[in-house]
Amino acid sequence: MNDSDMDDNTPADDRRTARDFDVEIDDVLDEDGDDEDGLFDDLLRGEPIFENKEVLRPSYTPHELPHRNEQINNMATILVAALRGETPSNILIYGKTGTGKTASAKFVSQELEKTSRKYEVPCEVEYINCEVTDTQYRVLAQLANTFIQQNREFVDDRVDELESLAERARDDPTVLADTEFDSVEAVVERVDSLLDDREEMEDVPMTGWPTDRVYAEFFDAVDYVERVAVIMLDEIDKLVEKSGDDTLYNLSRMNSELDNSRVSIIGISNDLKFTDFLDPRVKSSLGEEEIVFPPYDANQLRDILEHRSETAFKADALSEDVLPLCAAFAAQEHGDARRALDLLRTAGELAERDQADIVTEAHVRRAQDKIELDRVVEVVRTLPTQSKLVLYAILVLEKHGVHNINTGEVYNIYKRLCDEIDADVLTQRRVTDLISELDMLGIVNAVVVSKGRYGRTKEISLSVPVEETEAVLEADSRLGDVENVTPFVQARFDNE
DNA sequence: AACTATCTGCGACATGTAGGCT
DNA sequence: AGCCTACATGTCGCAGATAGTT
């Protein structure tokens, strides 16, 4: 309930404050007859393009997911069991990034919790992102703690309830008739035992306990109250990759030992083949139901964008071809909706910066470039020093008009660069690998070619803009003071 | 805090290889 | 036909870092 309330209110609040702000600005400008333009005046006067940019961000969970009805209904059909107090089948959800897996799952679980509250069926959904919480210990600890927290709240409520009951019973013992208690003393006793339990509910520390104790703690916490617990494990493949399938094995066989409650697992995975590494028993129990999220095609992406842009942008802020173009670009890249939204948002931001009234096709194309450039800058910036040196060597060669650079040349320049800045010199073996890595990152293009009598080498060329890359590399403090590499590149030319 | 397992980056050494040259 | 170049690619074992466990 809280979550959805917040979702409903936050954007509205944003809108209101934004509008108020506009009004104030207008007032100020009106009063000040002499409009000496300050730094921000121009920027503010332009028609804002965005109505609410939040809905374009990846963190936003929409209330409607176009083209995912089938999957959502599927999940709902499986999970209604929880509302009848039965154990829902475990679900495994597959799909690449940006296919709406997480959003759909979260949406369904919100609905589930909402309905469970309406009918007062005890049913909880716990969401865990295994990329963040990536060990068995941490998953268990986190689960244990949330359930312990819930139990505390449950006990507190129950104690309040019973205390007031006891109070009333003292005056008028007949109120006990409809309850499980036959005397005031029994109620008081129950309160005491609850308070004792309350004492024992200790948080699991984030480190320090043996795993089996954490597991036991979690087990007890879940079983303390009658309920159906749905555990959502996002990026479950990461968990399996890093710490094996023990966690899943334990979780999936819990049901047979729980007395009061039932657990059900929803696994969300990017990787279709991750079950290959699982214990067959885990595999069969976890994959009772499988739901696949296929990538969106261009038309579906357009629907999604249309849907979101209604709230995201002011009316008529988009020129006609913007959405189809964004959709087409994103469809080329594996139908990733996140990417499409990112593109649209960036295009809008660019338009805003231009103080344009509408977002045009050109903005989208520029956004595409910008996103790609940002990616490259980020990749290059975070490269280890040795890789940077190798890249710098390639860059230097490229700048001097050498094309089809080969490994030997790169290695020579690289050695000089290392000398210059006093860095360790790696062997050619290693540098070869580093070049391959740069190739895989897409900042360099390397093809192996055979030059017959003159051996076999990689032909390397830069596949990113020279100036920008150079700027990023030179921003590195260790590379900053490399000066004048031209002479020895030149020397190499003369030799040839 | 101490212990252990796993991962990472590296060099040594070995083997593979396309195709122009002789 | 086979040689030979300038590397590519593969495997191993090591040391130090990092993470998980107790």
From TrEMBL:
Gene3D superfamilies: 1.10.8.60, P-loop containing nucleotide triphosphate hydrolases, Winged helix-like DNA-binding domain superfamily/Winged helix DNA-binding domain
Skewed-composition ranges (Basic and acidic residues): 12-21
Region (Disordered): 1-21
Residue span, Cdc6 C-terminal domain: 391-473
One annotated GO molecular function: ATP binding
CDD domains in the cross-refs: AAA, Cdc6_C
GO biological process: DNA replication
Positions with a binding annotation for ATP: T99, G100, K101, T102, A103, Y296, R308
The keyword ATP-binding is annotated on this UniProt entry: yes
Known function: Involved in regulation of DNA replication.
Protein's name in the database: ORC1-type DNA replication protein
Gene source species: Salarchaeum japonicum
Gene: orc7
